[in-house]
Write a structure and sequence with these properties.
137 residues, alpha/beta, Rossmann fold
Length: 137
């Protein structure tokens, strides 16, 4: 099975037990990856809702998620260049810089990207994208 790179929306679905969480859980069990930019986005969403991002990091580490099951990959200079190129090509579809950072990482790792973001559908991204939710979720 190819490496799986999680978008922030995928990890959030997993953490909140939303539709698609089982798909993400399966990917994590097989050794998924998340980039530091997308992890920061997840932590930012937690903070936006009044949560403590530091507590979430501690919880995920204690549960073995950040300490082994989920690889956290740094955002490189090459990733930054690729994300910038993708940003220009995907802005009309509404992809964020963090989305493009995820896609850049997936390209570098030659991985499949997991997302809950339907804006990624039918875009020529040069990366295989797997939606974690079915159209009926």
């Amino acid at each position: 099975m190819a490496t799986r790179v999680l978008d922030a929306s995928a990890l959030l679905a997993h953490l909140r037990d939303e539709p698609g969480a089982a798909v993400v859980s399966d990917a994590i069990a097989l050794g998924a990856t998340i980039g530091t930019v997308n992890l920061a986005e997840v932590l930012g969403r937690v903070a936006d809702r009044g949560g403590d991002p530091g507590r979430l990091v501690a919880d995920l580490t204690e549960r073995g998620l950040l300490a082994g099951a989920l690889t956290v990959e740094p955002f490189t200079v090459a990733d930054a260049g690729e994300a910038a190129r993708l940003r220009a090509a995907t802005r009309r579809a509404g992809l964020s810089l963090a989305d493009c950072a995820c896609l850049a990482l997936a390209r570098r790792l030659e991985a499949v990207t997991l997302t809950a973001d339907n804006a990624w559908n039918d875009l020529p991204l040069g990366v295989e994208v797997q939606q974690i939710r079915s159209r009926t979720d």
